[in-house]
């Protein structure tokens, strides 16, 4: 049985549920439209530092932040593209701004959904001079949560096409003790190590290191999965639309999470142009990812 519930509180949330599958997703529209909790088959999949969620001045550490219009860090927190330039902090502004609840309900075909919207404003134009509409639709069905992201360029005719990148930053719950048994599916042979700022051959992960921040340069797929040896119920699959070609793995020693992040482009793409998506006036691009267990 599918259901949707609005929950009031200091941080209002939307809860999607599938009781037959013991699945539940919790969204916080006011905190960047973020997915804060995901339970599948009664098992909690995401890590969340609740203090960072409750503190509206902090970046949320946990859940699944939405990265738009620039995943990753820009050189000098600045960008220049399409004849425009500006300042923007790491991972863009979508994860820090409030999204509005546009619609929610259950589907005749099965599923519970909620659609959130973020539109351009004075705050976004100060960093990024295009008008846009971003829609996030979360659909919970069985043991999977699909997240659809639709970006529309609402800038008038005559303006240059709108460049952007997008990504997601899921913090999967993995205890420090389990990191030695954790594995991530990839065909990558080269990676950029963001801790040393060097590109090197890649032969596997050591998730017990003080910090792992690896950008897989030739992952070769729009799918991956995180598994724990000896715990078949712990496998989490991530797959996305064809745009999600850049994958990042990040974790910190002493923190009970491993991030497996699908991005459409590398960090700093608003400067380099690498794999940016460009939208003409009134054009829309639809992207999606799915998390399942």
Automatic annotation (TrEMBL):
GO terms for molecular function: carbohydrate binding; isomerase activity. The lineage of its organism: Bacteria, Pseudomonadati, Myxococcota, Polyangia, Polyangiales. It comes from Sorangium cellulosum (strain So ce56). Gene3D superfamilies: 2.70.98.10. GO terms for biological process: carbohydrate metabolic process. CDD domains: Aldose_epim_Slr1438 (cd09025). This is Put. Galactose mutarotase.
